[in-house]
Amino acid sequence: MTDTKIIDKEYVANTYNRFPVEIVSGKGSYVYDNDGKEYIDMGSGIGVTSFGIADDVWQNAITEQLSKVQHMSNLYYTQPCAALAKMLCEKTGMKKVFFSNSGAESNECAIKVARKYAAEKKGAEYSTIITLVNSFHGRTLTTLSATGQEHYHELFQPLTPGFVHTPANDLEALIDTANKNKTAGIMMEIIQGEGGVLPLDADFVKGVAKFAKENDIVLIIDEVQTGNGRTGELYAYMNYGISPDVVSTAKGIGGGLPLGATMLGEKVEAVLGFGDHGSTFGGNPVCCAGAVSIINRIDEKLLNEVKEKSKYVFSQFENADGVEEVCGLGLMIGIKPSKKTAAEVLKVCMDNGVLCLTAKDKVRLLPALNIPMEALEKAVAVIKKAIAE
Ligand SMILES: *Cc1c(COP(=O)(O)O)cnc(C)c1O
Q1: Which residues contact 70 (CB under 8 A, 6 or more apart)?
Q2: Share of the chain above pLDDT 90, in %
Q3: Residues 81 and 89 sit within 8 Å (Cβ to Cβ)
Q4: 290-300 per-residue burial string, b: 16 or more CB within 10 A, e: under 16
Q5: What is the structure's pLDDT at 2?
Q6: What is the Cα–Cα distance from 350 to 48, expressed in whole angstroms?
Q7: With left for phi above 0 and alpha for psi between -120 and 50, is residue 125 left, alpha or beta?
Q8: 325 SS3 class
């Protein structure tokens, strides 16, 4: 073991079951370990490095800002924060943005907005937030409560009250739950990421949006993983033609620096007032300058490339030897192997120079949005072989 691995094992809290690989450098979709071994990166730091490792445009944007001002408190104006908020609103039709540092925090803000909106409009007892079974919304105690997977809850009681979970793609059950509770909001991922790369049915998504609108319930779409070009649209809800009240995102928006964004639509744009919410680091100028460079480049051309590459990956794995199922959207793809576990496939891929992720029983692929075709072809060949063997 290298010094890093030994020291890490001794001193870093034991929450991550790390792979035995130490990454020391990279460029684009290629990364290198401490022995100089090359890997194609099909995980992008869990959908974070949208344009790959040490991308030039992003790096220039952040270093330029770094040499001007790296942080001011939110007591002052800074240009990158304002510019990013404007850009996000113009591209989505949302009205206002609250910036934080992570996906969990972007969901915390969304939940606070839904509760305050309902408290003022319908009464404080309207506090229930409905989420879906098998969802993932974060690791803080409140977003853990929102997460519809019991095994995350067991040892951390009592959780934040006021969350109920209903099965995905069952509109009747959701409406029944909403009517039985005093409901403030409904929160869901368009594709359940950690839950196994499971896209929701279009009819269900549209049905929920219609029901939420008719009943003045705040509809929150968690786009932490699906957002920022990942599915072939800027945000995944755009694939379904709905207009959420709140969109939360993080991961890929910062291109590798921590940034969360909670976008507020017309219905809730005025809900948060002075002192209702805040963050020391949220909207950090360096993170925002990087994000401006990322969002700027997610244009029609790039989104079409994402769709094309997606088609290629689907066509390669559908009906391939040892593949039970391929699911997902854009460059968020899950592959269920039938001969091995996903973890076993990952190990073989790693030995052969390709880094993938898992999600439940699937091999999960979240490559950089601009992964070169050549790297994608090489990686797909390695993964296919690992699954078929
Ligand atoms: C990763 C993820 C989160 C949590 O984000 P953090 O930045 O780890 O707090 C929340 N929701 C979804 C859908 C995610 O994929």
Answers
A1: 284, 285, 286
A2: 99
A3: no
A4: bbbbbbebbee
A5: 79
A6: 20
A7: alpha
A8: strand
User: Which tens digits make up the pLDDT trace of 156-197?
Assistant: 999 999 999 999 999 999 999 999 999 999 999 999 999 999
pLDDT at 125 over 90: yes
**Can you tell me which atom of ligand 1 is nearest the CA of 46?**
1
Give the integer Cα–Cα distance in Å for 282 and 98. Answer: 8
CA of 225 from ligand 1 middle (Å) equals: 7
**Is residue 5 classed as helix, strand or coil in its secondary structure?**
helix
Name all residues whose Cβ lies below 6 A of ligand 1. 102-104, 107, 136-138, 189, 193-194, 222, 224-225, 250-251
In this structure, what are the phi and psi dihedrals at residue 363, rounded to the nearest 5 degrees?
-85, 125
Calculate the dihedral angle through the C-alpha atoms of 171, 177, 181, 186, rounding to the nearest 10 degrees: -40
pTM: predicted TM-score of the whole model, two decimal places? 0.98
Distance in Å, CA 319 to ligand 1 centroid = 31
The ligand 1 atom at the shortest distance from the C-alpha of residue 192 is 13
The 10s digit of each residue's pLDDT in 28-49 is 999 999 999 999 999 999 999 9
Strand partners of residue 12: none
Ligand 1 midpoint to CA 38 (Å): 28
Q: Cα–Cα distance between 160 and 171 in angstroms, integer?
A: 25
- For the chain, the distance separating the N- and C-terminal CA atoms, rounded to the nearest angstrom, is 29
